[in-house]
């Protein structure tokens, strides 16, 4: 048993979907969330920059005594997980593998589609994770770079969103995937439109799966908190105009207890 | 006469459209361009963050001995121009006012539309600039947040882009604006679609106008370079996967002579 908080970081506030899942599955745990909103998004930056930012994000959480680090940012998990693991001694889990394991459990035909931002897809992180866990599956990746801006515009159910989704998803539909992995924090909000196009197949939302796997790992390592009342502290590196409105859309409840912070090495932002 | 370079900065590489215009109008000038690609975009960040970033960008150029600073970023020009002017003694021009002056020269009915990112439009910077220059005009602003992602996706002529443009621009069309100001570095690439919807009205591309106004100001201050061969040095705070391809789309020529730099106060990015 360990009463220290669980640390979760993302490039922005989309990772609050992971916080929501973890709170549901592990109601006693205290959570410290860091969103690097001053430098979001990570997906359009270089691998070097993402690694550097991710190390700073992890350091911030470690400095606050977290017992576990969850990488809720798909870009970070895609390119920085290994180096974070070798740099820090705290146990660490990324959003990529839990979704991969779940997709492999669900698929019957072994044909699995993965959608994400350009960086997540082109990094090859998903293909690598699938190959390491099972050689049997056939993975079809598809970058959907307009999905995040469409969610942030609030066009969840707009004709344009349906057209964009049709453009992106038709190749996956044609290839008869029986399982679709949503490889981005924003995509669960587009489920209605995605389901219209892809139909009645299996869907994997990695935000939920990372919560399930975190619970198992905390139990295995005897790090669970059985008594806490489960507080959530949210730290953001920038407070933009509409962060609260968008954040609450992801968190699914009012956003209290948040503050602006500056990361080490970023003396520019005081 | 002064042989020092002209400094131009933007949050990313879209500001290379301004470089292109300045090179055409002032072929003898040396140009130092800074794109803060590690922290782009600015438009989704807070006013405080944009001011801080813009001061650091200006400092970088001033440290390199520029004789003039051009703010090619509409978000910076919208919220940080005044504070940059009071902080530095070098002459400074932003992208907002030159376009406003041109639009006022072109309009016959006084009904002018302005399109830009959410921050540019909601900051009220354009309304303020129009009011200060002429009380006669009626300004209709419209935020078009999906235009930048569509340009970066390369969907310049896609049915989706036409539908999005129709959604955004129909209110301006209905209000019979006779002049449309493109208040974002990326929008000139969407001219074909925009013209399909708005028809044969006046269009103002502020990137060109800032070049015209810079030339006039250099002449007035006797800072022109009559003899230089006109070099361009490009500094970026991050080199992402496809920066060169997108950059050349804006610059209109091959991108040579670029390097990655770190800004003062950003020790995190070494």
TrEMBL record, chains A, B:
Annotated GO biological process: cell wall organization; peptidoglycan biosynthetic process; regulation of cell shape
Record EC number: 5.1.1.3
Entry keywords, A to Z: Cell shape, Cell wall biogenesis/degradation, Isomerase, Peptidoglycan synthesis
InterPro entries the record matches: Asp/Glu/hydantoin_racemase, Asp/Glu_race, Asp/Glu_racemase_AS_2, Glu_race
Active site per database record: 73 (proton donor/acceptor), 184 (proton donor/acceptor)
Enzyme class: isomerase
Pathway in which the depicted protein is active: Cell wall biogenesis; peptidoglycan biosynthesis
Molecular function terms from GO: glutamate racemase activity
Chain's role: Provides the (R)-glutamate required for cell wall biosynthesis.
Cross-referenced PANTHER family: GLUTAMATE RACEMASE
UniProt family annotation: Belongs to the aspartate/glutamate racemases family.
Protein name as annotated: Glutamate racemase
Organism expressing this protein natively: candidate division WOR_3 bacterium SM23_42
Lineage: Bacteria, Bacteria division WOR-3
Gene designation: murI
């Amino acid at each position: 048993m360990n009463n220290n908080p669980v640390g979760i970081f993302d490039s922005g506030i989309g990772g609050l979907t992971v916080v929501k899942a973890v709170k549901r599955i592990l109601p006693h745990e205290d959570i410290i969330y860091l969103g690097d909103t001053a430098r979001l998004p990570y997906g359009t930056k270089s691998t070097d920059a993402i690694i550097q930012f991710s190390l700073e994000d992890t350091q911030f959480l470690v400095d606050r005594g977290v017992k576990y680090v969850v990488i809720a940012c798909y870009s970070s998990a895609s390119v920085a997980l290994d180096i974070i693991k070798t740099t820090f001694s705290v146990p660490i889990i990324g959003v990529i593998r839990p979704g991969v394991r779940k997709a492999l459990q669900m698929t019957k035909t072994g044909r699995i589609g993965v959608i994400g931002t350009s960086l997540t897809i082109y990094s090859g992180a998903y293909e690598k994770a699938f190959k390491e866990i099972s050689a049997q599956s056939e993975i079809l990746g598809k970058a959907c770079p307009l999905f995040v801006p469409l969610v942030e515009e609030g066009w969840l159910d707009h004709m344009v969103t349906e057209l964009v989704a049709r453009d992106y998803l038709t190749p996956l539909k044609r290839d008869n995937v029986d399982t679709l992995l949503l490889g981005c924090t924003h995509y669960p909000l587009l489920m209605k439109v995605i389901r219209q196009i892809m139909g009645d197949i299996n869907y994997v939302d990695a935000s939920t799966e990372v919560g399930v796997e975190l619970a198992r790992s905390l139990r295995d390592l005897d790090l669970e908190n059985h008594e806490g009342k489960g507080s959530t502290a949210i730290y953001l590196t920038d407070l933009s105009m509409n962060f609260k409105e968008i954040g609450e859309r992801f968190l699914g409840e009012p956003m209290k207890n948040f503050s602006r912070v500056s990361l080490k090495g970023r003396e520019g932002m005081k």
